[in-house]
Target: Dihydrofolate reductase
Amino acid sequence: MSKIIVDCAISLDGYFAGEQRGPGNPMGGVSGRLHAWMMKEKAFWRRIKMEGGTEDGKDGELINEVFDRTGAYIMGKRMFEEGEVSWAEDLYEADVYVLTHEKRDPWIQKGSTRFFFINDGIESALEKARASANGKDIRIQGGAITIQEFLNAGLIDELYLHITPIFIGKGIRLFEGMDPDKYEIQVLQVDSTELTTHMHYRLIRK
Model:
């Protein structure tokens, strides 16, 4: 059965994104700092269908692990709007369900990426994602508000958290407003590399 997973980076002071996010300023301008550990990995650039990276290291192995286990994605409208202008064709190679109030026909790309626009909430998106994931896992892609919705609904099974040793100071905290009694949390793995600390947790709803 599909698991519901989150995989994201945060700063040492808990921020997922900076201020004034938008299509012209993705993640509030902090993505390069938060994701420096990814940017150096050839695996990351292969996954986004571009040339780049200098290393094939542990960080790249984790990038591949998460991509390989994912069969469908769910994201919020803000993340979609920030990425739509720059994402490569068939970036996700899976169905992507976008939570939005906007009525819009599916965006069918060349290859296997299809974007569906969901107007009736997270449970509906999740039901549709399960049907198209073919037994693989469903990744709640972001942004922070969407992740928070799924967390507070008690729907997340596993969390990959990459803690980047920087301070951002302002913006959107990943766990803002989180119900502290929602889950029992188990540590599955901890692995530190030069630019980040990888934390892998199992979340068990109480």
User: Anything to note?
Assistant: Residues 58-69 form the longest helix (12 residues). The domain at 4-205 is CATH 3.40.430.10 (Dihydrofolate Reductase, subunit A).
